[in-house]
Amino acid sequence: MKQSVFTIQENTPLTRDVMKMVLLGDTSAITAPGQFVNIRLAGRFLRRPISVCDWDGKTLTLIYKVVGHGTAQMKAMVPGEKLDLLTGLGNGYDLSVAGDHPLLIGGGVGVPPMYGLAKALIQAGKAVQVILGFNTWEECFYEEAFQALGCAVTVTTVDGSYGTKGFVTDALPEHYTHFYACGPEPMLKAVHASTATSGQLSFEERMGCGFGACMGCSCKTLTGYKRICKEGPVMRKEEIAW
Amino acid sequence: MVNTKVTLCGIQLDNPVIPASGTFGYGYEFAELYDINCLGTFSFKGTTKDPRFGNPTPRIAECPAGMINAVGLQNPGVDQVIREELPKLKKVFHKPVMANVSGFSIEDYAYTCARLDQEEQVGWLEVNISCPNVHGGGMSFGTSPQAAGEVTRAVKAVTTKPVIVKLSPNVTDIVSIAKACEEAGADGLSLINTLLGMRIDIARRRPVIANTMGGFSGSAIFPVAVRMVYQVAQAVKIPVVGIGGVSTAEDVIEMMMAGATAVQVGAANLTDPFVCRDIVEELPRAMARYKIQDLSQIIGGIQLWEKT
Ligand SMILES: Cc1cc2nc3c(=O)[nH]c(=O)nc-3n(C[C@H](O)[C@H](O)[C@H](O)COP(=O)(O)OP(=O)(O)OC[C@H]3O[C@@H](n4cnc5c(N)ncnc54)[C@H](O)[C@@H]3O)c2cc1C
Ligand SMILES: Cc1cc2nc3c(=O)[nH]c(=O)nc-3n(C[C@H](O)[C@H](O)[C@H](O)COP(=O)(O)O)c2cc1C
Ligand code: FES
Q1: How many Å lie between the alpha carbon of B57 and the closest alpha carbon of chain A?
Q2: What is the DSSP string of B265-300?
Q3: Chain-wide mean pLDDT for chain A?
Q4: Which atom of ligand 1 lies closest to the CA of A90?
Q5: What is the Cα–Cα distance from A34 to A112, expressed in whole angstroms?
Q6: Size of interface A-B (CB pairs under 8 A)
Q7: What is residue B67's DSSP assignment?
Q8: A207/B contact by beta carbon, under 8 A
Q9: What is each CA distance from A66 to A22, A180, A230, B65, B291, in whole angstroms?
Q10: Which domains does chain B have, with CATH numbers?
Q11: Do B57 and A209 lie within an 8 Å CB cutoff?
């Protein structure tokens, strides 16, 4: 983990309430896709956890949905403004067990961490299939970005206004070697129940610190108590106790 | 050169800055970030006789200038703390540590304190009496002078190290509890623990925290803490450790002027993991700004306004 100040390079809307923020700064503590950062915002006591969508030697991309006071404050920020971040938080996804044809499943703002993961898997020579689930056409984002990486992308919308009508589980392919999922808990549950292979799922919880100090984010798993911020947010399918 | 040293119940501290229990784990998460030997000491996570998972989540709610937690004393239990956590800590922290203990019966407290008292690394026992007494209808030990005195006596009877009793602010008269602990043999007092608080998610019409209520702490409670430290320090002869909303070197000085011999920093560690290191570094500069030579000389050193 590292604490450092980043400079906003870009903060643009992807949909009505989902924003993409590109930050310039020290990304050296980020070691795996699926990790998150914890953002200090002026006037807010607690930091805001947001997944790493993509990163390189000096830039970090976050995609966030405006849902409350803190994210509204982020939306109002402009390039050049600075943010204090804790980086390199959480375990991230394990790429070593992906197999040749991994399946990536993202729902809503669970889509962003799948992007960094897809990029890393493609670099490792895997054939990556992606399912992106949204409620409706207006909420869809990043389909082209995944296609540009070379992924086979399926989009589902609950109301059928775009792509396959239904949930991500209505679009599961026949064949895949391992799955990775991030999204709202009902989606994770459905994915857990409908997938045939081993997999990894990423969870959310209200956090006090984000780096393992407060026990605010604990959960029970079949392999013992875990802190979502430290031993998570990524859990193995086999260890999850619903 | 200014002097930041203070003596707490017979043990000298390089400085009065102490991360508070529950916000610093068993130390080693922070030892990865900076050399925690710069601290006066730290108080480790509230430890109980048996392992505890704690409360269901969500356990955390944000507040203006603070937070509510309902962790519910999640800890691995005293056996594992002695077997695993303390040896791990020994590698990164070379000063006496403050052992924070919780319990749900008088016997629990005595057992856990007696075990930790044997550990060479432990300098002080900090007895958190804000826990519900399962044999006393669930009322917290810290809300009755009698129960607080009983816990103190039971712990003192089975230990050799200084016993600091940590007081709850959720009482009508904290001075009477403080005096009861002093009479029962406490070597020191620390205060305040969290204030009982609650937040409601108005969109969902339900409490933010699964446990409905939780402990409120952070900068917002600083004035309440200063007031209670002042009242208690006026009324007892044993040293007082000031806790509540501290996040700067100036806050440390203010708490000490109110009567605290040492000062703990809680929730601030969670939002700024380097805050205690920064306070330790800033303290000599802040002392110079306020023309303080020797920090121990300012304890309780304020002049009240004249009554007209
Ligand atoms: C590991 C992790 C990764 C995340 N990644 C993303 C992401 O990539 N994109 C994205 O849009 N969102 C993500 N979230 C959710 C995001 O943290 C919340 O939407 C955000 O904190 C809301 O802040 P607010 O001030 O706007 O909302 P408010 O409701 O005003 O916030 C009040 C408090 O509740 C907390 N809170 C509210 N909702 C959540 C939530 N869903 N999870 C955790 N804490 C919450 C806030 O952090 C704050 O402390 C992630 C959460 C976690 C735990
Ligand atoms: C997440 C969290 C966990 C805590 N756990 C304990 C505990 O185990 N034992 C204890 O005596 N106090 C515990 N406390 C209380 C703090 O030690 C401290 O008394 C209180 O938070 C007030 O200080 P602050 O305003 O600086 O946070 C906890 C506080 C927080 C925020
Ligand atoms: S949020 Fe503090 S331990 Fe996970």
Answers
A1: 7
A2: E-THHHH-TTHHHHHHHHHHHHHHHTT-SBGGGGTT
A3: 97
A4: 1
A5: 9
A6: 88
A7: E
A8: yes
A9: 16, 25, 25, 22, 48
A10: 6-55+71-202+215-298 (3.20.20.70)
A11: no
Q: Tens digits of per-residue pLDDT, A109-134?
A: 999 999 999 999 999 999 999 999 99
Question: Cβ of B53 and A208 within 8 Å?
Answer: no
Delineate the domains of chain A, giving CATH numbers in brackets: 2-89 (2.40.30.10), 95-199 (3.40.50.80), 203-242 (2.10.240.10)
A29 touches chain B (CB under 8 A): no
Q: ipTM score here? A: 0.94
Ligand closest to B55 (CA) is 2
A226 within ligand 3 shell (Cβ under 6 A)? no
CB A47 less than 6 A from any atom of ligand 3: no
Q: What is the pLDDT at residue B39?
A: 98
Which residues, 6 or more positions from B289, have their beta carbon under 8 angstroms from its beta carbon? none
Task: Please give the distance, rounded to the nearest whole angstrom, from the Cα atom of residue B158 to the centre of ligand 2.
Answer: 26
- Cα distance between residue B73 and residue B51, in whole Å: 9
pLDDT at A193: 95
* pLDDT value at residue B307: 87
The low-confidence residues of chain B, meaning pLDDT below 50, are none
Neighbour-count burial of A23, counting CB atoms closer than 10 A to its CB (0-12 exposed, 13-18 middle, 19+ buried): buried
Closest CA to ligand 3's atom 3: A212
